[in-house]
Amino acid sequence: MPTAKPRRLTYADAGVELDAKDTFTEGLESLMRRTYGPRVVANPGGFAGLFRLDYNQRLFARNYKDPVLVACCDGVGTKVKLASQVGVFDTVGIDLVAMNVNDLVVQGAEPLFFLDYIAVPTVDKAMLTDLVKGVVEGCRQAGCALLGGETANMPDVYAPGDFDLAGFCVGVVELKRASNPTRVRVGDVVLGLASSGIHSNGYSLVRKVVAEAGLDLSAHHPELDEAPKRGRRKPAPRPLGRVLLEPTRIYAGSITRLLRNYRVKNVISGMAHITGSGLSGNLGRALPPTCDARIDRSSWPVPPVFTFLQRHGGIADGEMGRVFNMGIGYCLIVRPAFAESVKEQLQRLGETVYTIGEIVKGKGQVRD
Q1: pLDDT per residue as tens digits for the range 299-330
Q2: In this predicted structure, what is the pLDDT of residue 307?
Q3: Which of 365, 190, 360 is nearest to 289 (CA)?
Q4: Fewer Cβ close by (within 10 Å): the C or N end of the chain?
Q5: In whole angstroms, what is the distance from residue 192 CA to residue 297 CA?
Q6: CA distances (Å), 271 to each of 61, 176, 189, in order?
Q7: For the purposes of burial, counting CB atoms within 10 Å of the CB of 300, is it exposed (0-12), middle (13-18) or buried (19 or more)?
Q8: Which helix (DSSP H) or strand (DSSP E) does residue 253 occupy?
Q9: How far apart are the first and last CA of the chain?
Q10: Which positions ≥6 away from 238 have C-beta within 8 Å?
Q11: 3-state secondary structure 255-315
């Protein structure tokens, strides 16, 4: 019998929407340009982004003597599942930038440029545009350029409603200014910068609490309402889902500006971005093997979102501190003579800062 001719298959038959993807990516240039400074080199039609390390114009000179490039990569974890449930996507775009640039400035580096990777089962232009708008806003806050990225349409890998994100950031630091735990000394002061909430770690546990406690993400819980800031109106009540999606605070802008004030003196002896493993697991990475950080956990207020999750999930205190930031998103270890000045500068830059501990003799551990 004659063999039937196979039908003419297309990429669209396999679930990949090339035309929709191309239309989406072609419309991103105007968004990305909001993050460009004079060091971005125009490269229309290019396969990669171009960025000047030095820029020899009087207003924009960045002439490095011994530059070291600093690079990092991170994602948002299962917070993307919550974003899908709530139908809000711009906030996780900000998270994506924050998780990278906050790590980068720990090394004393200035963020230069950012790239994103978005993987989806189908090209939903509205959802993707919101995501990229969030990335653009994060880059704007961090002072880095969004040079490009990739949108991967993979229907066989991701189920409808699923998506994933990854971010990549490159920065630069003068070698002699790069962070080094050996600079930390006994007597140094530990400053803690307030977090904006849960940030982007621990969301598998957050979602487990929501599911097992039968919490409605669209419900309003008065105990989670934000306190009004001085001289401003009380913020509008938010449903639980929006509270849990509060974006990670971006510290990069404040830290970069602070470091520019100390080009000669190394008054900041160490820094830490408080992510997964909490304060103890991250601050400990900034310590030499001869010093401990003694922390006073009563020195800052724990945001209500953490006590809310702990109560509804029956989570032990130790587990809370191991999983979540508990209200401190970033730490600086500072020479005691400069601690108050650094604190005041950061407050002028918009940070809420607490003196949370001191450096003592020890074995590289964080003590309560």
Answers
A1: 999 999 999 999 999 999 999 999 999 999 99
A2: 97
A3: 365
A4: N
A5: 11
A6: 27, 16, 11
A7: buried
A8: helix 252-260
A9: 81
A10: 220, 224, 225, 226
A11: HHHHHHCCCCCCCEEEEEECCCCHHHHHHHHHCCCCEEEEECCCCCCCCHHHHHHHHHHCC
Return the closest-CA partner of residue 165 out of 211, 119, 124.
119
Domains observed in the chain = 12-177 (3.30.1330.10), 181-226+236-367 (3.90.650.10)
Q: Which two tokens stand for residue 169?
A: 């950031």
Q: Which residues of the chain have pLDDT under 70?
A: 1-4, 56-62, 229-231
Between the CA atoms of 275, 361, 109 and 102, what dihedral angle is there, to the nearest 10 degrees?
A: 10
In what helix (H) or strand (E) does residue 22 lie, and over which residues does it extend?
helix 18-26
Q: Which of 191, 343, 210, 199 is nearest to 278 (CA)?
A: 199
Instruction: Say if pTM beats, i.e. exceeds, 0.90.
Output: yes
48 token code pair: 């990669």
pLDDT at 62: 67
- Residue type at 243? V
